[in-house]
């Protein structure tokens, strides 16, 4: 982020999302496959197999946290498996299709449409809910809003410390997500586990905290 954009920041909104937010790739793929499957009268094998792969990857990302070290180990394992498949299994495939090669789960256009609508509904509720549950950091205070009619909580930013972490490499790749821990002086620790655009938010908070005592309107 450029220095100019950081200087224009007077408040930073932090929203912690549930893990279901990482199902957005499955929603997009389901929508695209629905449009493609409408062209064909019967279920297409590669479309169903692609949908299952995306489902597996999405659930895998949500189920486990992969640090940088675990991520590189996983990449090495995947490369080794692909090499073994390429050199040992593919050359020995029979000329005629086998049930394994010609596997078709029979996913119809209606199935893709239903999955798309379900995910749009769930992710839409998550997005709407995040508009009413957030933390706003300003130069002098932290403002917490929770719910439509609930009372707001205000915490001074004096002696505030923040800790930024990227516990899962995959989540960072998918939505630039990470965790932020707010540690106000004399207050409770505030953990926010899934914050989107983590690096941008961290830079903005750093700017606010480093300029609390030098803003022109604070000079007597």
Task: Set down the secondary structure blueprint.
Layout (H helix, E strand, L loop, with lengths): L2 H5 L3 E4 L9 H14 L7 H19 L4 H22 L19 H22 L2 E6 L2 E6 L6 E4 L4 E5 L3 H7 L2 E6 L6 E6 L2 H13 L10
Antiparallel strand pairs: 1-2, 2-3, 3-4, 5-6, 6-7
Report on the structure:
There is one protein chain. This protein has 220 residues and is an alpha+beta fold. The protein folds into 2 domains: 22-128, no CATH class; 159-212, no CATH class. The protein is 46% helix and 17% strand. A 4-stranded antiparallel sheet has the order 1-2-3-4. A 3-stranded antiparallel sheet has the order 5-6-7, covered by helices on one side. β6 (178-183) and β7 (190-195) form a beta hairpin. α2 (24-37) runs antiparallel to α5. It is flat.
Number of distinct helices: 7
Helix content: 40-55%
Give the N-terminus to C-terminus distance in angstroms: 31 Å
Overall pLDDT: 78
Which band does the percent of strand residues land in? Answer: 15-25%
| Outline type | flat
Q: Which descriptors would you attach to this protein?
A:
2 domains; 4-stranded antiparallel beta sheet
Gist?
The chain has 220 residues and is α+β, with helices and mostly antiparallel strands. The protein is built from seven helices and seven strands.
């Amino acid at each position: 982020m450029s220095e100019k954009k950081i200087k224009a920041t007077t408040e930073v909104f932090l929203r912690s999302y549930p893990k279901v937010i990482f199902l957005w790739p499955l929603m997009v793929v389901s929508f695209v496959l629905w449009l493609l499957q409408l062209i064909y009268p019967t279920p297409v094998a590669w479309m169903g197999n692609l949908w299952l792969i995306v489902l597996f990857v999405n659930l895998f990302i949500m189920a486990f946290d992969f640090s940088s070290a675990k991520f590189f180990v996983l990449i090495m394992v995947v490369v080794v498996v692909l090499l073994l498949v390429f050199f040992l299994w593919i050359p020995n495939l029979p000329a005629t299709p086998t049930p394994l090669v010609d596997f078709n789960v029979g996913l119809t256009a209606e199935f893709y449409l239903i999955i798309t609508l379900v995910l749009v509904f769930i992710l839409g509720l998550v997005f709407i809910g995040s508009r009413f549950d957030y933390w706003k950091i300003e130069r002098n205070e932290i403002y917490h809003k929770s719910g439509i009619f609930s009372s707001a909580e205000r915490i001074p930013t004096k002696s505030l410390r923040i800790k930024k972490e990227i516990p899962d490499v995959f989540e960072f790749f998918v939505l630039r997500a990470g965790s932020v821990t707010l540690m106000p002086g004399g207050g409770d620790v505030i953990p926010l586990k899934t914050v989107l655009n983590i690096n941008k938010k961290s830079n903005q908070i750093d700017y606010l905290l480093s300029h609390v005592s030098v803003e022109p309107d604070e000079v007597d």
